[in-house]
Specification:
The protein has 7 helices and 3 strands. Helices cover about 60% and strands about 10% of the residues. The longest helix is centred in the first third of the chain and has 31 residues. The protein is mainly alpha-helical and about 190 residues long.
């Protein structure tokens, strides 16, 4: 009887571990394919199957994808400082890629340059030569811009944009490009529904 119970216990643990591995593989595939809406939905449905580090990891990626750069960078910092020994090199490299993107979106070019240097210095072996060259080139840009003040947008009053319909019944807004007035066509919601 004890042997049967032990066998069932081992079998159930193996089944849970296999389910978790399949889930992580699925999540990684969704990340690679940039299917972040599906990843977000599936993560909410099965978050209890992930360990704490995996929850933080995919959360940081989703925060990056959904334009929450401050939250993403905060989680990335926590992962890389407290849990780096529990992650693979490819996970750490992906987090550094997210950090670069976050820092650029926050106009923190100094941090983007530092993250690029870390990515190239530690994980270059993970990438093809063309992508490594792209990283080096981007790193040069971030270093050149590292002393620039962050960009700011100042809204001083409400603005209204006049939208006109053209012959094809498409919505157009007037813009000025290189000093020349032009019409910019807005894509109808029927093509890309919300």
């Amino acid at each position: 009887m004890k042997k049967i119970f032990l066998y069932l216990l081992v079998l159930s643990n193996f089944s849970i571990a296999q389910d978790k591995m399949q889930l992580v593989n699925r999540f990684n595939k969704l990340c690679n394919e940039k299917q972040f809406f599906i990843l977000n939905r599936e993560m909410k449905q099965s978050v209890e199957m992930l360990d704490y580090v995996q929850q933080l990891y995919y959360g940081a990626i989703l925060d990056n994808a959904f334009n929450r750069p401050e939250a993403s960078n905060k989680t990335i910092l926590k992962l890389l400082s407290e849990y780096k020994n529990l992650m693979t090199d490819s996970m750490k490299a992906r987090l550094l890629e997210c950090r670069i993107n976050n820092s650029v979106n926050l106009f923190d070019y100094k941090d983007a340059a530092a993250a690029t240097d870390s990515l190239i210095g530690r994980y270059a072996y993970l990438y093809e030569k063309d992508y490594k060259d792209e990283l080096v080139n981007s790193g040069l840009i971030w270093k050149a811009a590292s002393n620039l003040q962050p960009q700011e947008v100042s809204v001083r009053a409400d603005s209204r944009i006049v939208v006109k319909k053209d012959i094809a019944n498409l919505s157009n807004i007037g813009v000025i490009l290189n000093g020349s007035p032009e019409q910019f066509i807005l894509i109808p919601e029927q093509i890309f529904p919300r």
